[in-house]
Amino acid sequence: MSDNTALPTPPDPLDQTVAALTAACPGLRQTEPYTIGAQLADVRLTPQRTARFTWAGYEVHVTVGHEDHLDRDDPDSTTLYREVRAHAIFLVPQTIQVDGIGHVEWEMTNPRAEIAFPTAFAAAAADQADPRFAAAVLSTVAKALAYTRLATEHAAVQAEQAADEVGWESERPEGVNPRTWLRDKRAQRDAAKS
User: Fold this and answer.
1) Contacts for 161-169 with beta carbons within 8 Å, 24 or more apart?
2) For residues 64 and 82, is the Cβ–Cβ distance under 8 A?
3) H-type helices in 76-177, by residue range?
4) CA 84 distance to own-chain centroid
5) How many CA atoms are closer than 13 Å to the CA of 35, on its beta-carbon side?
6) Read out DSSP for 25-94?
7) Is the separation of the CB atoms in 77 and 150 below 8 Å?
8) Distance separating alpha carbons of residues 163 and 66, to the nearest angstrom
9) Residue 43: pLDDT band by 50, 70, 90 thresholds?
10) What's the pLDDT at 95?
């Protein structure tokens, strides 16, 4: 008796990536190059091999490299890949007047204040028509957006510690060495947290 059941086909990496990304970042869209009605899976690049995605106030800038032998583990490999880089920035919608330290001739405003986050890297299939290429680009975009969350959490902790140290400096008794005072206050804070 022969078995005519077909083996299940493996899931498409692009479909999996798009499903996970739209669940994690609803409303994510490609804004450069822009095509009306294009789906997220239809990853497009400019002639300079760049793209831009936007989501919830973040912009993710993508750069795709030339075809290259990126597999360093197998020097005999003839397979070509492309390096994908993505970094997110957060556009600060409104900056407030901040008093600077020291002398300036006049204050100037930043017309496009932004916060930059770490760059995500990945290797993608060399063929831009291959669905694995689009999956790698979108996966790298997702990684860049994950870095925003991690960096923001770290920045919140650092800002809290910096605020503590500013407060401690205002409490420092006259004649006490500033370094010694901060070292003792940090030790007290660390002991209280453990």
Assistant:
1) 164/189
2) yes
3) 131-171
4) 13
5) 10
6) STT-EEEES--TT--TTS----TTSEEEEEETTEEEEEEEEEEE---SS-TT----EEEEEEEEEEE-S-
7) no
8) 46
9) very high
10) 62
